[in-house]
Q: What sequence folds into this?
């Protein structure tokens, strides 16, 4: 164990190469990719009726008595257990036009995921001492220039409209034209005993100029609130461990609390990566915390003292957090960001470029640190499956 904690410099005066250089353009030619898709891809996206709902989903909806037209007309508000789709292959998220207007986005709340400091200190695995708090720093505006791949995720839950954070990531089967977004599992699925959340959209560089609540309420231009538009998730994937063991306090699923979205625009034909201008590679082989000098976490904290309208970041040397000896060890950094930053990407520099290595999952009630899963084989398999199934779309 590492019994002493020492603050690390932020990699010289450039501050993690211009604060992790989040606008670095993804590599790869636009015409690359995989030409042959496995059978699972065709079966998952086949649409015999041409109504935009894949056959496999249509069959599931019929089993649950869900009518697509009724759903779009307000039926999604019914959270009856029989209609709360929860299994991995049941994700359903049809576009509902004009649902997420500026006011509804502004009023959405955070889905807080916390554990008490006591719970964190009595684990049976290997943990380092809690880090000293790192005060979150507001990101420079405009966000689309300084942190282009970072954005805000909106979704509906039984408790109402909620928010998380997310990151545009590259797609190995669609180089240069990715439509993939990385976030936390608890931002798309309620975990044990629950199901998929609804009306999930990603808004890159939300509130681009960091306007105040009063300025937004007065009617900020749409191009400032959502400079790249709204991107609806047409498929989502999270870990089986989160679906089976995730809870409001993180639970046994916290170490597997990650998710990938495939999104599409409300209008237009360009990919998310082409529209935003960048996407980050995901590093599924990042070393343990002791092998990383600095990690940066980005997001939109929404719980007090924050209001979810401004993008923040924290940079710190990571330590280890183990919630149980049977669970994978998580990364942990000092950070004062609160709920709403959940799902926001954690980045490190590799060969001069930023790569995503984790996402915000849980933190303590006193908001002094954040913890995120270490991405490995399971996360890579999840990403690969979604990329192979949807990468050509």
A:
């Amino acid at each position: 164990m590492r019994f002493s904690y020492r603050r690390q410099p932020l990699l010289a005066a450039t501050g993690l190469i211009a604060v992790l250089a989040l606008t670095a353009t993804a590599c790869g030619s636009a015409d690359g990719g995989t030409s042959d898709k496995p059978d699972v891809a065709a079966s998952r996206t086949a649409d015999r009726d041409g109504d935009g709902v894949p056959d496999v989903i249509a069959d599931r909806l019929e089993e649950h008595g869900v009518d697509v037209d009724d759903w779009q007309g307000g039926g999604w508000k019914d959270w009856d257990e029989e209609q709360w789709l929860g299994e991995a292959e049941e994700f359903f998220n049809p576009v509902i036009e004009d649902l997420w207007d500026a006011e509804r986005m502004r009023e959405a709340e955070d889905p807080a995921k916390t554990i008490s400091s006591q719970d964190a200190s009595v684990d049976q695995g290997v943990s380092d001492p809690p880090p000293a708090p790192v005060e979150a720093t507001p990101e420079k505006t405009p966000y689309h220039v300084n942190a282009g791949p970072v954005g805000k995720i909106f979704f509906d839950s039984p408790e109402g409209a909620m928010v998380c954070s997310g990151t545009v990531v590259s797609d190995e089967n669609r180089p240069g034209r990715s439509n993939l977004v990385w976030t936390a599992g608890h931002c798309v699925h309620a975990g044990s005993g629950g199901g998929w959340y609804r009306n999930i959209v990603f808004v890159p560089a939300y509130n681009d100029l960091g306007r105040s609540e009063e300025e937004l309420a007065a009617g900020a231009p749409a191009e400032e609130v959502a400079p790249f538009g709204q991107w609806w998730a047409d498929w989502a994937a999270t870990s089986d461990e989160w679906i089976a063991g995730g809870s409001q306090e993180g639970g046994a699923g916290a170490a597997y609390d990650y998710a990938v979205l495939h999104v599409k625009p409300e209008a237009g034909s360009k990919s998310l990566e082409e529209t935003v201008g960048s996407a980050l590679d995901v590093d599924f082989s990042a070393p343990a915390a002791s092998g990383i000098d600095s990690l940066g976490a980005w997001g939109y904290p929404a719980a007090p003292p924050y209001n979810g309208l401004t993008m923040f970041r924290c940079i710190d040397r990571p330590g280890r957090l183990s919630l149980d000896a049977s669970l994978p060890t998580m990364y942990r950094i000092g950070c004062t960001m609160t709920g709403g930053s959940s799902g926001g990407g954690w980045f490190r520099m590799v060969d001069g470029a930023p790569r995503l290595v984790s996402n915000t999952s849980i933190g303590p009630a006193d908001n002094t640190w954040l913890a995120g899963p270490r991405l490995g084989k399971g996360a890579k398999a999840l990403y690969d499956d979604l990329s192979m199934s949807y990468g050509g779309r």
About this structure: The longest strand covers residues 160-169. Confidence is low (pLDDT under 50) at residues 1-17, 23-41, 116-124.
